């Protein structure tokens, strides 16, 4: 069945769309009440995030817009040390979209939400003119016992750790758009296990950020600016798969500005760096974690090249790759 504007009318067609595609896949006692808002249990500190997902194509090697929406929302909460609990999901659907497509996206969202330990408690659908596109807006809510994990909380000597290989999602999306055949897969993943294991082992986490649009270089510059520090990293220690490295070289891409959707940067106390990286490597989706640098006096981000030279790493300038997430 194809989506028509009547599916956005708020009447029978809308109800049928919700019942057929979303209600049974996201079923839980809170959502099943079908009220105008959800009332949920809380705690002293609540973490809230919102995001919109417009990735092209909707399905790609290793993921799809549904999995991406859950991962992106959950990971934003995790980066503040919060435990993700609830998600809302609003679908903006262009007429001409196929219900088989929507079912596949909803299935993927439901499976990823289960993996991440969150439930979808509210949602909305709107249908607009168009050519079969699908866009998703989410809000995520999590609970936290601390508000100390922030970008300004960097100290001299702190270790900078990445949880895995850089550029995977960026290379996957670009490969799909350019019809380039390779085995590169998106890394889109919920990072719950990594963060939980770090916290359960009392690692002194000063800051965490997920490496998404803008890439590692942009994220590190944002942290350096927020803390009035310099971040010095070693080129040879940044994990990158051989295939992504070759892909970037052929197309003239800078690994430092290629996005991911399942990797984080963690800045931890120097004396706990080795323990932290071992914990991450023992966690789901963290097997390729590496310590890539340190925090020191100064400003900006400095890269020590493989030849021993130094160069400045800037934030991404210009458009980069649009609609990556």
Describe the structure.
It is a single chain. 29% of the residues lie in helices and 25% in strands. With 325 residues, the chain is α+β, with helices and mostly antiparallel strands. It folds into two domains: 5-144, 60s Ribosomal Protein L30, Chain: A; 159-313, PurM-like C-terminal domain (Phosphoribosyl-aminoimidazole Synthetase, Chain A, domain 2, Alpha-Beta Complex). The strands form three sheets. A seven-stranded mixed beta sheet has the order 8-10-7-11-9-12-13. A four-stranded mixed beta sheet has the order 1-6-4-5, with helices on one face. The chain has a two-stranded antiparallel ribbon with strand order 2-3. Helix 3 links the parallel strand 4 (83-94) and strand 5 (119-128). The protein is globular, with a radius of gyration of 20 Å.
């Amino acid at each position: 069945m194809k989506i028509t504007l009547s599916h956005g009318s708020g009447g029978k067609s809308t109800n049928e769309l919700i019942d057929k595609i979303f209600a049974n896949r996201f079923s839980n006692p809170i959502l099943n009440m079908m009220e105008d808002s959800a009332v949920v249990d809380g705690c002293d500190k609540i973490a809230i995030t919102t995001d919109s997902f417009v990735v092209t194509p909707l399905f790609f090697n290793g993921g799809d817009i549904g999995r991406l929406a859950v991962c992106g929302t959950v990971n934003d909460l995790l980066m503040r040390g919060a435990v993700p609990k609830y998600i809302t999901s609003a679908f903006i659907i262009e007429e001409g979209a196929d219900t088989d497509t929507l079912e596949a996206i909803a299935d993927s969202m439901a499976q990823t939400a289960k993996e991440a330990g969150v439930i979808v408690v509210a949602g909305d659908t709107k249908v607009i003119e168009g050519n079969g596109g699908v866009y998703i807006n989410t809000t995520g809510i999590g609970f936290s016992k601390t508000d100390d994990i922030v970008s300004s909380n960097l100290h001299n000597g702190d270790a900078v750790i990445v949880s895995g290989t850089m550029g995977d999602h960026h290379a996957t999306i670009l490969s799909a758009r350019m019809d380039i055949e390779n085995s590169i897969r998106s890394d889109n993943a919920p990072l719950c296990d990594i963060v939980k294991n770090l916290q359960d082992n009392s690692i002194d986490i000063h800051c965490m950020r997920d490496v998404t649009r803008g890439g590692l270089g942009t994220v590190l510059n944002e942290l350096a600016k927020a803390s009035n520090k310099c971040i010095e990293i070693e080129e040879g220690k940044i994990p990158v798969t051989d295939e992504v490295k070759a892909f970037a070289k052929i197309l003239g891409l800078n690994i430092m500005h290629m996005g991911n959707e399942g990797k984080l940067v963690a800045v931890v106390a120097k004396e706990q760096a080795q323990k932290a990286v071992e914990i991450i490597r023992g966690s789901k989706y963290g097997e390729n974690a590496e310590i890539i640098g340190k925090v020191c006096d100064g400003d900006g981000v400095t890269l020590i090249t493989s030849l021993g030279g130094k160069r400045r790493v800037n934030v991404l300038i210009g458009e980069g790759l649009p609609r990556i997430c």
